Amino acid sequence: MPYQALNRVIAVGLLLIGGWAATSAPLAWGQQEINRKAKFKVAPVYPELAKRMSITGVVKVLVTVSTNGAVKDAKLVGGHPVLASAALDAVKKWRFEAAQQESTGIVEFRFDTPQ
Q1: What topology does CATH give the domain 29-111?
Q2: What is the per-residue burial (b if ≥16 Cβ within 10 Å, else e) of 14-29?
Q3: What is the C-alpha to C-alpha distance for residues 86 and 79, in angstroms, rounded to an integer?
Q4: Which residues have CB under 8 Å from 39's CB, separation 6+?
Q5: Terminus of the chain with fewer CB atoms < 10 Å: N or C?
Q6: Cα–Cα–Cα angle for 48, 33, 109, nearest 5°?
Q7: Digit-coded pLDDT (tens) for 28-76
Q8: Could you tell me which residues come within 8 angstroms of residue 68 by beta carbon, excluding any fewer than 6 positions away?
Q9: In the β-sheet with 71-78, what is the strand arrangement from edge to edge?
Q10: Which residues are paired to 75 by β-bridges?
Q11: With b meaning 16 or more CB within 10 Å and e meaning fewer, what string describes 55-79?
C-alpha cells in the first residue's frame, strides 16, 4: 500500500513538472514569433464550453503570411483542443503588412477566465 501511494505522488509530481515545462518552454528550435506587424487583428471568441469548464491557457498557432499580408496558412502547434478552433478562426482573419516574401512564425493567444 505505501508503494502505491508513493508511486501516485511521483506520477502526479511528474505530470505537474511536465505541464509546467510545456507551458513555460521557449519556442521550439526553428520557430519564432512572427516578425511582421499586424495591421488588423481579430480577437478569438471564448468558446462557451471552455467558459462552462473554466478552461484557460495559451494556444500557439504557426502562421504563414503571404506577400500581400493575408494569412495563407494557420496550424495549431500547442494548446487546449477546446480553445484551438477559436484561435485558428481568429488568426485567419488577421492582416499583416505587405512584404517582399512570405513570413512564417508563431502567434500566441492567451485565454483567461472570462469575467
Answers
A1: TolA/TonB C-terminal domain (3.30.2420)
A2: eeeeeeeeeeeeeeee
A3: 11
A4: 69, 95, 96, 97
A5: C
A6: 10
A7: 434 467 788 899 999 999 999 998 999 999 999 999 999 999 999 999 9
A8: 98
A9: 71-78, 57-65, 103-111
A10: 62
A11: beebbbbbbebeeebebeebeebbb
